């Protein structure tokens, strides 16, 4: 696992992709603005600084994801160490896709 700092171009690409809106948009949680970069596969679980592994989300969704890991793993907003984060997550911008292969 790399302990490297996040490359600025990766952060910039994720923020550009978010286009001014939280990429989670969890109903009745989200405050809208993409304020923080969240590693879906956590750094301590081997998650890398990649556009596939990162989402730009609001602080409120970010806290909620970490407070509700069971939901977040189903949603693909958390990814187990033995899985590969694939973009987009099953739950993206307020919509849960029917089938997610992980
Ligand atoms: Zn949000």
Helix run count: 3
Uncertain spans: none
Radius of gyration: 12 Å
The proportion of residues forming helix, as a percent range, comes to 25-40%
* Main β-sheet, spatial strand arrangement: 1-2
Q: What order do the helices and strands follow?
A: HEEHHEE
The ligands found in this model are: zinc ion
Structural class: alpha+beta
- Count the beta strands: 4
Verbal overview:
This protein has helices at residues 8-18, 59-67, 69-75; strands at residues 36-39, 54-57, 91-92, 95-96. By secondary structure, it is of the alpha+beta class. It has one domain (8-96). Strands 1-2 form a two-stranded antiparallel ribbon. A hairpin with a 2-residue loop joins β3 (91-92) and β4. It binds zinc ion. Residues 22, 24-26, 30, 57-58, 60-61 line the site of zinc ion (ZN). The site of zinc ion has 9 residues, from α2.
What are the key terms here?
single chain, two-stranded antiparallel sheet, about 100 residues, binds zinc ion, 3 helices, alpha+beta, about 10% strand, globular
How would you summarize what this structure contains?
The protein has 102 residues and is α+β, with helices and mostly antiparallel strands. Helices cover 26% and strands 12% of the residues. It has one domain.
């Amino acid at each position: 696992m790399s302990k490297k700092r996040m490359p600025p171009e990766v952060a910039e690409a994720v923020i550009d992709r978010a286009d001014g809106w939280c990429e989670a948009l969890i109903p009745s949680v989200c405050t809208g603005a993409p304020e923080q970069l969240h590693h879906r596969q956590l750094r301590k679980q081997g998650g890398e600084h990649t556009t596939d592994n990162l989402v730009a989300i609001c602080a409120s969704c970010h806290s909620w994801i970490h407070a509700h890991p069971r939901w977040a793993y189903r949603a693909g907003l958390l990814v187990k160490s033995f899985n590969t984060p694939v973009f987009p997550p099953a739950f993206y911008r307020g919509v849960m896709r029917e089938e997610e292969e992980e």
